[in-house]
Amino acid sequence: MFGMGFTEIMIIAVIAILFLGPDKLPSAMVEIAKFFRSAKNTLGTMKESLEEELNVKDIKEEALAYKKELLNAGDQLKSAADVKKMAAKLTSLEDDTFEDDGFFDEPKKVIKDENLPKESEPQEVTLKKKKKKKSEEDNTDV
After folding, report:
1. Can you give 27-64 as a three-state secondary structure string?
2. Residue 29 neighbours by CB distance under 10 Å
């Protein structure tokens, strides 16, 4: 204990008995035990707080790594959105990214729908309410 041997502890005990006497020695031993217990608790809390600080340090390092990744991604986005570089690539046309796929060469398909009005028939646009036919009115009364 504290780097002391058995003989050193015995010498300290004898001196304590001589100075304190047999009646005060038990209460002094209780006080010493309380002191060591509180010192042990203090060391434990210091150890826990130190571990928390080290954990916070790890979290800070992780956050800095994420920040660095985000900055790199932002730089990549800026370089991808650089219009001058893109224009230079487009004007050189060294790559085959804009190869003709023949989309405009195909004939257009015309879809005919009987419900749609023909282009030659003019239509009258009015905001007046149309009157119902008599056969339709009879069906609604049922």
Report:
1. HHHHHHHHHHHHHHHHHHHHHHHHHHHHHHHHHHHHHH
2. 13
Percent of the chain surpassing pLDDT 90? 15
In angstroms, rounded to a whole number, what is the distance separating the alpha carbons of residues 12 and 58? 46
Q: What is the pTM of this model?
A: 0.33
Q: Which two tokens stand for residue 125?
A: 């646009």
Supply the mean pLDDT for the chain: 76
Closest CA to 89 of 101, 80, 100: 80
The whole-angstrom separation of Cα 50 and Cα 56 is 10
| CB contact set of 1 (below 8 Å; sequence gap of 6+) | 9
> In the structure encoding, which two tokens stand for residue 91, read together?
């004007």
- DSSP-derived secondary structure letter, 100: -
Residue with tokens 């010498």: 11
